[in-house]
Design brief:
With 478 residues, this protein is mainly β. It contains five helices and 37 strands. The strands form nine sheets. Strands 17, 18, 19, 21, 22, 25, 27 and 28 form an eight-stranded mixed β-sheet that branches. The protein starts with a helix and ends with a strand.
Length: 478
């Protein structure tokens, strides 16, 4: 009502509202009687809204062959207007032209906070400029009411600096083997080679519950968490793995809440290392270096009596080793050096469960630094990449055009440039048994697994992280 009374325009694709707060009311009909209220079809509403936008002074015209998914957001201020363009397509760029009744255009960088004149053209109606967004790219422009001189198009000379030698590749941190199948004994019954989720359900059922209470159960107040189990309750769960060769030193197994269990490795007692944890403070690290043997190994956790906190989860083997697929799961072998491979990421080089950091190093001889320098990643996959020059962090790379300015870190003579690629915990924590899953993973995906025990290691689903071409140090000169 206030909007209409103030002269605000309304394009209505249906009848005016007949109720206010659920009660019949004629206020909507009275508002619709205003001259600024216009009854239109959906098509007419789109055309009318487009006309209003053009009359307002800002127009976005996409290129005829634009296959991107372009979204925009506008914000008006007293001294100008922001336009935020986003291309949400993963595969295609988005191109076009923007015109506006303004006196200049600035580009605002949300990453660095820098503000600079943008390239644009002036005409009698205002200003216009082109945009060319890569897949998942964005652009933040400010259309100024004050005069701004255009930046002008630049055609710099870009030269790749030749590296002094091959790319060195190093894993940062310990490799991981996820152990997600167990043998479980509870209530006088034993199940072998059971997926951890199913083993957890079985353990709670054998101890008098309908299933795992942490899986989609709701409690009233504290009726579940305060439950007590009888003295004879509990379970045993055994994680098995095979070493093909001598044991790596050190070697740890990560158990969730190890303080709740009696733990043995090949029948010998072991305990969690005080103050050591991995991923989460409840994920304790148990040193099994002195108790493992070449060949088959078994780590057993025993809960007695049962508590509500005894939930069987996967365990994780940590150490300097490689992981090789076998007919049933995986085998641990001697660590092999990583390579920069044009086709194979970490998961195909003995690290199918590794999701942390790998460092790629190249050295360059630059007698006399001139112009600007940037690191570019032509072909890679990961969550983010950190760039270091001569031991100092220069920046991060996380989105196209996959570049990082390193000018101020380059010095005369030898320069060591490192790119540290970080994967994700998808490969470590899963899900691993529900096919080629990308994007959102829900609880149900972590409950899927073969019923016949561990599948072949090649059937575990993981993503291929890493660099697939050497990174490039580029010299940019005007």
């Amino acid at each position: 009502e206030q909007y209409v009374q103030a002269g605000g325009r309304v394009l209505a694709c249906g009848p005016p509202p007949a109720r206010v707060d659920g009660a019949a009311s004629d206020r909507g009909i009275k508002a619709a009687a205003s001259k600024s209220w216009q009854q239109v079809s959906v098509v007419d509403a789109i055309n009318a809204a487009t006309a209003l936008t053009q009359a307002d002074g800002l127009t976005i015209n996409r290129a005829a062959d634009d296959k991107g998914l372009l979204f925009h957001q506008r914000r008006r201020l007293d001294d100008g207007e922001f336009l935020f363009l986003v291309n949400t397509s993963i595969d295609h760029p988005s191109r076009g032209e923007v015109s506006c009744k303004a006196r200049g255009i600035e580009i605002w960088d949300p990453d660095t906070g820098k503000i600079a004149p943008y390239n644009f053209q002036k005409d009698a109606s205002g200003v216009k400029t082109d945009f060319d967004l890569p897949p998942c790219g964005s652009l933040l422009l400010f259309f100024c009411q004050k005069p701004v001189q255009p930046a002008g198009k630049k055609n710099p000379t870009i030269t790749a600096v030749k590296a002094s030698g091959p790319t060195d590749v190093e894993r940062i941190g310990e490799n991981v083997l996820t152990l997600d199948f167990v043998d479980v004994t509870a209530g006088g019954k034993t199940q072998k080679n059971v997926y951890a989720f199913a083993a957890g359900m079985f353990a709670f059922q054998q101890n008098g519950m309908s299933g795992n209470p942490w899986n989609r159960q709701v409690q009233l107040h504290d009726m579940l968490i305060k439950k007590k189990f009888p003295p004879g309750s509990g379970f045993e769960a055994t994680y098995r793995f095979k070493l093909d060769g001598p044991a790596p030193k050190p070697l740890h197994i990560v158990i969730e809440r190890p303080d709740l269990y009696t733990i043995t490795c090949n029948g010998k007692p072991v305990t969690a290392v005080e103050g050591r944890w991995w991923l989460d403070k409840s994920f304790g690290m148990v040193d099994i270096t002195s108790t493992v043997v070449e060949g088959d190994n078994a780590v057993t956790i025993k809960a007695s009596p049962m508590t509500m906190f005894h939930e069987i989860e996967p365990a994780y083997l940590l150490g300097d080793f490689s992981v090789d697929p076998s007919d049933k799961g995986f085998t641990v072998s001697q660590a092999r050096p990583l390579k920069l491979d044009t086709r194979h990421g970490w998961n195909a080089q003995g690290m199918p469960f590794y999701g942390h950091d790998v460092c790629y190093t190249q050295e360059y001889d630059i007698a006399k630094p001139e112009g600007h320098y940037r690191v570019s990643l032509p072909n890679w996959y990961g969550s983010v990449a950190k760039v270091l020059v001569n031991g100092t962090k220069a920046g991060t790379i996380g989105y196209r055009p996959y570049q990082c300015d390193v000018t101020k870190f380059i010095r005369p003579g030898k320069n060591k440039v490192q790119v540290v690629v970080t994967g994700t915990l998808k490969n470590t924590l899963g899900p691993h048994h529900c096919g080629e899953l990308m994007g959102m993973a829900g609880p149900g995906h972590f409950q899927q697994s073969p019923k016949t025990g561990p599948p072949p290691g090649s059937k575990y689903q993981s993503l291929s992280y890493g660099l697939f071409e050497p990174f490039v140090l580029e010299q940019v000169q005007p």
